[in-house]
């Protein structure tokens, strides 16, 4: 009897234990016993942070229908021929509505431009709110207090002072930053006639540059190889080089680490050792080795800048905008550095220009802001000026050369800003009259310094 009671008790406990372990569930995942309460990790439930109310942008300033004028000696209005231009036209329309204004692009003939600028600013009523201006014209205007500094119409919130991908500050002039423009890349450098190079079996200049062999001596060597009588009539019919002698001197001076005038310190530089060394080299091109084609018969004639278009010149300096309608393929490399030069400076930027805001423009800050915003559009280019450069050059190697080795290497050259600065007479004496370089530099040194002093720093 006791055994039965013992067995009954054991059986009862066993049934109780099995019932407890089964938990009364019917699915497999419920067969795992829960962890002890003391070992449970309880996730803290966080109350969602209250959303901050969106900051409302202050309403755009109502300009009451004001016309904002943007002037140049050509039409700056986007033509609408590319996706970027179409997007900018749409943006302009949007901004006109946003600010209740009208954006007008003013085209003034070059020969009338500076007179219109000067007379209108002196009258206190600038003919345009934003003006395109060459640096050589801007310097006198700056010295007379007729242009505003970038710092006077921008804040740290403007793109130009932050990412600078819509607008960038142009190089300083007159000791401060006055100019601005949208970022871009331009092809200012030594171009060469690829077709002629292949025909004559000349070494490719980009290969020479890449191999570190592109020097003044190498340029002269190649130019001498190209200068020849190919039809045996006793006359040279293919030439190594061409150009406007004034420009040629300035470019080689810049590539030698110099400048024909020091506009920052107000000093003449025709007598500087770097200028003299460049002038000696240019004289070799024209008068010693005679590799330069002078189509007009006068190396001081500006039209010599276009002589290369005849197709019988191997090497020439040109800007990309000069390459339209050529019948031959071109390549580009930087102007080779002289003995005292560096890759940071490869050409003289005598035609440097930018946008400026004249003194007397009402609400200059909002005018600038609107102009900057016209470029705040979806970017369709992989890099600045892509569409433009691809329209000018057929080889990607040329575009890469411009972007990687030429862009940003221009030396602002402002001798044209100074009244009667004798660069022309200096070059004429050396190249046309074949006078001594050092004697010529000494001859014009005082006149050059007097010209600088007359305008002031």
Automatic annotation (TrEMBL):
Lineage: Bacteria, Bacillati, Bacillota, Bacilli, Bacillales
Listed SUPFAM superfamilies: Periplasmic binding protein-like II
Name of this protein: Extracellular solute-binding protein
Keyword tags: Signal
Signal peptide: 1-28
Domain of life assignment: Bacteria
Pfam family, one: SBP_bac_1
Biased composition (Basic and acidic residues): 39-61
InterPro entries registered for this protein in UniProt: Bact_solute-bd_prot1, SBP
Chain intervals for the UniProt region annotation (Disordered): 25-61
UniProt keyword Ion transport, yes or no: no
Keyword tRNA-binding: no
């Amino acid at each position: 009897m006791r055994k039965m009671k013992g067995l009954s008790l054991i059986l009862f406990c066993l049934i109780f234990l099995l019932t407890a372990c089964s938990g009364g569930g019917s699915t497999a995942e419920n067969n795992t016993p829960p962890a002890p309460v003391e070992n449970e990790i309880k996730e803290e439930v966080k109350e969602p942070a209250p959303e901050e109310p969106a900051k409302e942008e202050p309403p755009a300033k109502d300009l009451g229908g004001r016309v904002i004028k943007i002037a140049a000696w050509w039409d700056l209005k986007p033509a609408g021929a590319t996706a970027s231009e179409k997007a900018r036209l749409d943006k302009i329309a949007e901004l006109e509505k946003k600010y209740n204004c009208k954006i007008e692009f003013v085209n003034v003939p070059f020969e009338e431009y500076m007179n219109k600028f000067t007379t209108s600013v002196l009258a206190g009523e600038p003919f345009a709110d934003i003006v395109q201006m060459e640096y050589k014209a801007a310097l006198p205007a700056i010295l007379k207090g007729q242009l505003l500094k970038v710092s006077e119409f921008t804040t740290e919130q403007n793109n130009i002072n932050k990412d600078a991908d819509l607008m960038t500050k142009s190089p300083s002039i007159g000791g401060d930053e006055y100019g601005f423009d949208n970022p871009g890349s331009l092809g200012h450098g030594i171009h060469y006639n690829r077709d002629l190079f292949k025909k004559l079996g000349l070494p490719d200049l980009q290969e020479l540059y890449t191999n570190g062999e592109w020097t003044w001596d190498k340029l002269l060597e190649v130019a001498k190889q190209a200068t020849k009588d190919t039809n045996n009539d006793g006359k040279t019919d293919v030439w190594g080089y061409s150009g406007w002698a004034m420009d040629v001197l300035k470019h080689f001076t810049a590539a030698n680490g110099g400048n024909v005038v020091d506009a920052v310190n107000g000093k003449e530089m025709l007598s500087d050792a770097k200028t003299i060394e460049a002038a000696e080299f240019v004289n070799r091109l024209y008068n010693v080795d005679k590799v330069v084609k002078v189509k007009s018969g006068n190396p001081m004639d500006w039209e010599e800048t276009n002589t290369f278009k005849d197709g019988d010149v191997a090497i020439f300096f040109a800007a990309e905008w000069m390459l339209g309608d050529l019948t031959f393929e071109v390549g580009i490399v930087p102007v080779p550095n002289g003995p005292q030069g560096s890759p940071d400076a490869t050409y003289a930027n005598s035609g440097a220009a930018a946008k400026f805001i004249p003194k007397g423009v009402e609400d200059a800050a909002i005018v600038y802001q609107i102009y900057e915003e016209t470029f705040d559009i979806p970017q369709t280019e992989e890099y600045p000026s892509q569409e433009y450069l691809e329209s000018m050059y057929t080889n990607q190697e040329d575009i890469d050369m411009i972007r990687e080795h030429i862009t940003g290497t221009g030396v602002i050259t402002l001798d044209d800003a100074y009244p009667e600065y004798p660069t022309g007479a200096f070059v004429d004496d050396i190249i046309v009259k074949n006078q001594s370089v050092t004697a010529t530099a000494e001859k014009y040194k005082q006149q050059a310094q007097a010209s600088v002093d007359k305008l002031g720093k």
